[in-house]
Amino acid sequence: MKLENLGYNQVFKKLRIENKLEDFEMGRIISEHKERYIVKTLIGEFDAEITGNLRFSAKSREDFPAVGDWVALTRYEDNLAIIHKILPRFSTIKRQAVGRFGEIQMIATNIDYAFIVQAVDRDFNINRIERYLTICYSSKVNPIIVLTKTDLINEQQLSEILESINIRINNIPVIAISNETQAGYDAVKSIIEKGKTYCMLGSSGVGKSTLSNNLSGKIIMKTDAISQSTNKGRHVTSHRELIVLESGGILIDNPGMREVGIADTASGLETTFDRIVSLSGNCKFKDCTHTNEIGCSVLEAVEKGAIDKKSYENYLKMEREKAHFESTVEEKRKKDKEFGKILKNYKKDMKKNKYYK
Ligand SMILES: Nc1nc2c(ncn2[C@@H]2O[C@H](COP(=O)(O)OP(=O)(O)OP(=O)(O)O)[C@@H](O)[C@H]2O)c(=O)[nH]1
Ligand SMILES: [Mg+2]
Ligand SMILES: [Zn+2]
Fold first, then answer.
1. Which of 14, 97, 104, 121 falls between 20 and 30 A from 61, CA-CA?
2. What pLDDT does residue 338 have?
């Protein structure tokens, strides 16, 4: 076994030296459960916790390890380890945490490619694909669309679906597969490169774990028929797990997501909706909202049918979400700052107070 088999490369080697971590062992986080981590190293797998220092200096969720991270650790006893430092990540997939607005949830890090998995039956939804694409672009992860359960529809229906994707989404590989018959598996296998890390994204019950298991040739992730029979879907996979495929690819399975909230999307929307964004440069008003303005190039294109109306509506919706998320974060930051000031003044007053020693 070499660390390269887990995705280690020249960049991480350099980062390790730059961060003066040569005296530590390196490992990759392969699963996480409530601040307990399983780290895979050259020697084996270890239960790990972070140092107190790392915990107390952490300012946000992003300062804690996540599945996919490369960490510097020391081992003790047989199977335990302490994580001292997280190497800088080249990509981070995150979303708006469900039910906790303004907070983010880490999905996985150091990912090269994301499989956006959707079943062609009732799960199929292009708006949601655009949502995942936006997350991928803002995370600096290359998207690959995987349509599953093609055994449940006929060829005509499949080609209609492919065509509907083609109208709105360009230049991204789309692979249609069946986990039942393994049709399309060759295409998936041939897209997976040695030493690169792939991450499964998609709703519950679409077949992410079935695909992971089949690709690995082992039953690593539990799958379930129940999630298929209800529309809501019960989450079968409850944790993330990194597995190394025989072909040399590295795969991270994920629990299904019910909501794909747009968090800090940086340039994500601009890339997903590049046609809309480039047209908006021609709008009459600089601050055009593309909703009712005269001389709006985007609206014109929608009316002419040059831009798909549903795609346009999805864009506006995600723009609003992004703005809302950003203002929530900004508000939170202000409050924290104000609180910090109050605390500082309080301490100052206390010091001035002669009764205080
Ligand atoms: N007919 C058909 N059934 C499939 C296919 N892929 C998966 N299934 C079934 O769908 C159900 C859910 O599959 P899972 O692999 O557990 O789905 P998942 O995406 O991992 O779900 P979560 O872990 O809940 O996110 C299982 O009963 C699978 O057998 C497929 O291509 N065709
Ligand atoms: Mg699963
Ligand atoms: Zn406009």
1. 14
2. 77
Please name the residue that has the structure tokens 């747009």.
Answer: 262
Pairwise CA distance, residues 276 & 314, whole Å: 11
Please identify every stretch of the chain with a pLDDT value under 50, giving residue numbers as ranges: 226-233, 355-357
Q: Which atom of ligand 1 sits closest to the CA of residue 212?
A: 15
Q: Which atom of ligand 1 is nearest to the CA of 235?
A: 24
The residue to which tokens 């041939």 are assigned? 190
User: Ligand 1 — pocket residues by CB below 6 A?
Assistant: 148-149, 151-152, 178-180, 202, 204-210, 223-225, 227-228, 235-237, 255-256
Number of H helices, E strands in the chain: 11, 13
Q: Is 208 exposed, middle or buried (CB count within 10 Å of its CB: 0-12, 13-18, 19+)?
A: buried
Segment 267-285, tens digit of pLDDT: 788 888 988 999 999 999 9
The C-alpha atoms of residue 167 and residue 117 are separated, in whole angstroms, by 19
Rg of the chain over Cα atoms, rounded to whole angstroms, equals: 23
Provide the pLDDT for residue 357: 44
> What does the pLDDT read at residue 344?
73
pLDDT score at 356: 47
E strand segments, 171-226: 174-176, 197-202
Q: Which ligand is nearest to the CA of 282?
A: 3
Written as one letter, the residue type at 17 is: I
Closest CA to 134 of 338, 315, 1: 315
Q: What is the pLDDT of residue 134?
A: 92
Q: What are phi and psi of 99, to 5 degrees?
A: 80, -5
Alpha carbon of 240 to ligand 2 centroid (Å):
9
The pLDDT of residue 270 is 85
CA 36 to chain CA mean position, Å:
20
The secondary structure of the chain in percent helix, strand, coil, rounded to multiples of 5, reads 40, 20, 40
pLDDT of 220? 63
CA 157 to CA 176: how far, in whole Å? 12
Residue nearest to atom 26 of ligand 1 (CA): 225
Average pLDDT of the residues of the chain: 87
